[in-house]
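Hey, quick one: can you model this chain's 3D structure?
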Amino acid sequence: MTFVVALVGKGGVGKSTIAALLVRALHERSSQVVMAVDADPNSNLGEKLGVKVGRTIGELREDLLKKAEEIPAGTSKQDHVKYQMQLAKVEGEHFDLLTMGRPEGPGCYCYINNILRTFLDMAMDDYSYVVIDNEAGMEHLSRRTTKSMNALILVSDATKTGVETAVRLRELARHMELKVNRTVLIINRIRGQPDPLIISIAQKAGFDSIELLHEDPEIERLNIAGQPMIDLDGSSPFYRTIKLIAASLV
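Sure thing. Here's the predicted structure for all 250 residues.
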């Protein structure tokens, strides 16, 4: 059975960094290839994982809409989509990555989206673990056909505004009737002792668990150097905490 972890949060809180390191931690814990899905239109999970993204699902969707008549004779649209999705998948050493890419343009995508959702869910079923790096609006999660999500991780920075945003995003997930087994708040980039006010706000919100990630100069160094986060030293306090979070999820 596939264990699905989705991360959401406003831009700039370190969500993609955490997603990449969760992919690594889940692989190290299970020795399984992890499916990573970059569902944020501002795609950068591939960079964090150290792979170059080629074709995106958004580009595939646009091509299907514009060039449906060019599908080779004798090939069903379903088979063509399945083949193109395989081409869009980037294979890393311990993970596979699918990048959703840009949102829909003008046009009718209903039939195409139904096919894409079906095959995306089928692809996810081939993995023991799936990590979805999502946009704050959670559009992709609202359209998925899978039955449930094992963990919804809401990422905030160490500010009152950030935590309040995470609380609102959790309420948005409820409003969208997403099936979530567990909600986890990660407060990222804490310096020194966490502010008691933001901890109080988080505790009152009723998350299933609250995790704290302190600032790590090694993260900043990798960012400045443009190196993938998946290369973070395994002894890093930041990564050690990520491993503990991964262990608590499964």
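One thing worth noting: The domain at 3-53+95-102+128-249 is CATH 3.40.50.300 (Rossmann fold).
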